[in-house]
Amino acid sequence: MAQDKITREDIKAKFEELESGLTKAGKTALPALPAIGTAIGVGVFVVALYLGYRLGRKRNTIVEITRI
User: Fold this and answer.
1) What's the CA gap between 61 and 58, in Å, rounded?
2) Which pLDDT score is estimated for 19?
């Protein structure tokens, strides 16, 4: 069983095929990028806000003043 040798043209053709597929996929995903970026930004903001709120509650000291 002799295998055919892979030539430079075979590799080049395969890379061009893969590149054209990636270009098509990239163009279809392009309109969704702003929405995805906004959702990630809002998510990071909400998590930071929540963690800051928790940290502030843990570090607050309650001082009770009573009259003698």
Assistant:
1) 8
2) 83
